[in-house]
Design a protein that fits this description.
Residues 201-325 form the GST C-terminal domain. Pfam families: GST_C_2 (PF13410). It comes from Agrilactobacillus yilanensis. The protein is mainly α. It contains 14 helices and 6 strands. The chain has helices spanning 4-10, 23-26, 91-102, 145-151, 180-187, 205-228, 232-252, 266-275, 278-285, 297-307, 310-313, 318-327, 347-350, 356-362, and strands spanning 44-45, 48-49, 82-86, 110-113, 163-166, 171-174. The protein has a 4-stranded mixed sheet. A two-stranded antiparallel ribbon has the order 1-2. The longest helix has 24 residues, at 205-228. The protein is globular, with a radius of gyration of 20 Å. It starts with a helix and ends with a helix.
Length: 363
């Protein structure tokens, strides 16, 4: 049975798996999207032609397109067969990277990173321009769209991260940011570290499912919806939704170390990836600016507590966030002037937190 408080909160929201296109490319606000209402020059970088002026073909909401599972036996649980492709700027992809490391699955599932900066004027695809010869060393492709097209030769939608790729076939087998953590938690137990947390414990599954939907609607997706700024009324709707939920979470975390007591679950990963970007990106760039994360005592100390864990810290890359959200892509400054923040001061993330008080209380 779902926790009464969560059930009551869930009745108030409408959840859809479809995500809006990224505000950095599609917002009507020039703060979020510095290229709004502009025609860009046509660029060609490393053999890739820019397509920003034709970006509307990627503007629709889009849900995960590939959903093959380990838990139903469709995908074999085979070490060294799969590679997670992600970008360090992206909260949706970062949650899977954190889970792989937290579970100790980094020994059996490899990770490849796409460049947060696309070639000048390119939307809808991701590229391996951080690797030697601009090629992923395991998959031997230059763009993630090549793996999408191997899975579906007629694929024409946005190429998104995270993407789990079958190394043997080169095909994307799952890009569902909502279910991948559970797939790895449940189906890969034999390969998890001995001290790995149970991110989806059976006794809490209905509660975790409920809270995940709440976080998705009111935090993870709502900050993006505020950034899209379709109208003042629409912006204020999502602005209020975000801060009403942060107030609720602040209260919940005043009573326990993590979202479900003293154990880290999938829900904590989902909340963390938005909170770790909140002050740097969403507060400044998407005008979600009622309060900063650091002004919430419980939420801030909770986030620092998670950051102190290597799986969280090692997959939190503030530089990549700044690059994607502020520099946008490799368009020359002479053609598109933008300012990249000099901060944040990372020493505040290393400062002590007070969350041990809950462990001591329960011992």
């Amino acid at each position: 049975m779902t926790e009464k408080t969560l059930a009551e909160q869930l009745e108030k929201i409408d959840v859809t798996e479809n995500l809006s296109a990224c505000p950095i490319d599609f917002s009507k606000s020039k703060v979020a999207n510095p290229r709004e209402s502009t025609e860009q020059k046509v660029y060609k970088s490393n053999g890739v032609n820019s397509n920003f002026n034709q970006r509307q073909k990627f503007a629709e909401e889009q849900g995960p397109q590939f959903n093959l599972k380990f838990t139903d036996g469709t995908l074999p649980v085979t070490p060294q067969r799969y590679r997670l492709i992600w970008s360090k700027h992206c909260p949706w992809a970062t949650r899977i990277a954190i889970a792989i490391d937290l579970l100790g699955l980094d020994q059996v599932i490899s990770k490849g990173v796409v460049d947060p900066l696309r070639p000048a004027g390119v939307v809808g695809d991701w590229f391996f321009t951080l690797d030697p010869d601009n090629e992923d060393p395991v998959l031997h492709v230059k763009s993630l769209s090549e793996n999408y097209l191997k899975a579906d030769p007629n694929y024409k939608k946005r190429t998104t991260v995270p993407a789990l790729v079958d190394i043997k076939t080169g095909k994307v087998v799952n890009n569902n940011y909502n279910t991948l953590i559970n797939e790895l938690t449940l189906a890969w137990r034999d390969y998890q570290a001995k001290d790995a947390p149970d991110l989806y414990p059976e006794a809490l599954r209905s509660d975790i499912d409920a809270l995940n939907k709440i976080l998705y609607a009111d935090v993870n997706a709502a900050v993006n919806e505020a950034g899209l700024a379709r109208s003042q009324a629409d912006y204020e709707k999502y602005y209020n939704r975000v801060f009403d939920r942060l107030d609720w979470l602040e209260q919940r975390l005043s009573q326990q170390r993590y979202l479900f007591g003293n154990q880290i679950t999938d829900s904590d990963i989902r909340l963390y990836v938005t909170l770790s970007r909140f002050d740097l990106v969403f507060y400044q760039k998407y005008y979600v600016n009622k309060k900063k994360l650091v002004e919430y005592p419980n939420l801030w100390n909770y986030t620092k507590d998670l950051y102190s864990i290597p799986a969280f810290k090692n997959n939190t890359d503030f530089e990549s966030m700044k690059q994607r959200f502020y520099q946008v892509d490799h368009t020359p400054q002479s053609d598109l002037v933008r300012i990249i923040p000099a901060g944040p001061d990372l020493t505040i993330w290393e400062a002590p937190n007070d969350r041990d008080r809950f462990t001591e209380t329960n011992e």
